[in-house]
Write a structure and sequence with these properties.
Elements (H helix, E strand, L loop, with lengths): L23 H18 L13 H15 L2
Length: about 70
């Protein structure tokens, strides 16, 4: 008794696909790159924590400094 054969679907067309990325798919990598690049350019700010201020407070302060540079 022969087994039923399945035909292959038609291959995908090689035309242009209309896929669009959401805005954050580009914004998040750019933001990460800019943040790391800013830390590389100013290594004097990248110091070890002395335990005086919490790390979150330092992070928020640094973000405010970076955002105020653009104004």
């Amino acid at each position: 008794m022969p087994a039923p054969t399945h035909t292959r679907p038609h291959p995908a067309t090689t035309g242009v696909v209309g896929t669009r990325l959401p805005w954050w798919a580009l914004a998040l990598p750019v933001l990460a790159f800019v943040t790391l690049f800013a830390l590389i350019l100013n290594p004097s700010e990248a110091r070890a924590s002395t335990g005086g201020e919490p790390a979150v407070a330092q992070l928020v302060e640094r973000a405010q400094q970076l955002l105020s540079l653009g104004r």
